[in-house]
Design goal:
Helix content is 27%, strand content 21%. By secondary structure, it is α+β, with helices and mostly antiparallel strands. Helix 2 packs antiparallel against helix 3, helix 2 crosses helix 6 and helix 7 packs across helix 9. Bound molecules: fe (ii) ion.
């Protein structure tokens, strides 16, 4: 264990066991990150033309200021071996307390502090060699997704609380353990389907009641259920329902997918959603038993809880861990999320660089030329 993850002995041991690590910025580094994020926000944030190369340059500059231990920690995540990496010691973006009510989505998206948090997330993703991207079938094709109770279902009703609640990060409902969709494949594109995101990064604009984000590392669960069950989970015997966050008319249900796959670069990669997955009707008893063992293992696991604020961010390895949350208690809670694609995704995916996967297919479209 390197010094950079020994924030304090108790926490470091707890997180290391769970394969979750902490990266601490010192004051000088975090001041510089803050300036670089502000510069990126000033040109329009992550979605602006030129943002990708600016974030990349910012990450390169910051890396020069990191210690050997800090660099090793970033490399461990970049190599796919860490379930989640928490960035601490970040500067507050704004001092103001949240308003009495959650503003609407559009006005939030255009706020300078949101652009700053998005920009900072984009730079942090680059530190672990992930490229920010969005699918155009999801989140209206936008890079930054605001996670908040816009559509009801939280502990406290919103104005115009709908009868039917959307099961997505735009509602206030509790979300069971899941990886992010799409669920067809995890690292390599398959049959024209895009891989799932390699990472998601989250920070908080407001979290007045300090509500936790929960992460469940998969390695201990897979070890517990054993090799035979794991092998059964690599077969294409599972199906899933369509995500509520998909753009109308795009994306859909799926069947004959696996939950686990072996991968030469990262060892294994997983896709799973406790409220969307089920077993194909014609699956064998071996497969059904393995699926039950996985579901039991997930439900019995103790999630690692972390309370995000403006002064922290968490990048979650989406093929190695699940995440979940409780019902939203304070409707002013707003998280800022971006997806990342790791260095292991085939370069052929990146023909152009606004990183928008077209529908559910693998072409990634944009306008700034090939990535380096
Ligand atoms: Fe999620």
């Amino acid at each position: 264990m390197t010094d950079s993850i020994k924030r304090d002995v108790e926490n470091a041991e707890f997180f290391t066991e769970q394969d979750i690590r902490i990266f601490s910025f010192d004051t000088r580094q975090s001041t510089r990150l803050h300036t670089l994020a502000e510069e990126l926000a000033a040109i329009g944030g992550p979605q602006a033309p030129g943002a990708k190369s600016k974030a990349s340059l910012a990450a390169t500059e910051l890396k020069c200021s990191f210690s050997k231990d800090q660099c090793e920690l970033l490399a461990a995540y970049s190599n796919g071996l860490v379930c989640a990496l928490i960035f601490e010691g970040l500067q507050k973006i704004t001092d103001g307390s949240p308003p009495n009510e959650l503003p609407n989505l559009t006005s939030l998206e255009n706020r300078y502090d949101v652009l700053c948090l998005g920009a900072r997330n984009q730079i942090l993703l680059k530190l672990v060699d992930n490229i920010s991207f969005a699918y155009d079938m999801d989140n209206e094709g936008k890079l930054v997704r605001l996670v908040a109770n816009f559509k009801g279902g939280g502990l406290t009703k919103i104005n115009a609380e709908p009868d039917i609640k959307e099961l997505s990060s735009h509602s206030g409902l509790a979300l069971g353990p899941h990886t992010e969709a799409p669920y067809w494949c995890a690292v390599n594109a398959k049959d024209g389907h895009s891989p799932s995101p390699s990472s998601l990064i989250l920070s908080a604009l407001w979290n007045p009641s300090l509500e936790a984000t929960r992460v469940i590392p998969l390695p201990p669960i897979l070890e517990k259920i054993g090799v035979t069950h794991c092998l059964a989970l690599t077969t294409g015997n599972f199906r899933f329902t369509r995500s509520d966050s998909f753009v109308s008319g795009k994306g859909g249900d799926g069947r004959n997918v696996s939950i686990l796959e072996f991968d030469d670069k990262v060892g294994f990669a997983a896709r799973f959603n406790s409220y969307r997955f089920s077993v194909n009707d014609n699956a064998s008893n071996f497969v059904r038993t393995a699926y039950s063992a996985l579901c039991r293992g997930v439900s019995e696991a103790t999630p690692v809880e972390y309370t995000l604020t403006q002064e922290s961010a968490m990048v979650i390895n989406n093929v190695r861990s699940l995440h979940c949350r409780d019902v939203i208690k304070d409707n002013r809670r707003v998280l800022v999320r971006i997806f990342g694609l790791s260095k292991f995704l085939p370069l052929s995916l990146f023909r152009r660089t606004r990183y928008c996967c077209r529908a559910d297919f693998l072409s990634i479209q944009a306008a700034e030329g090939p990535i380096m």
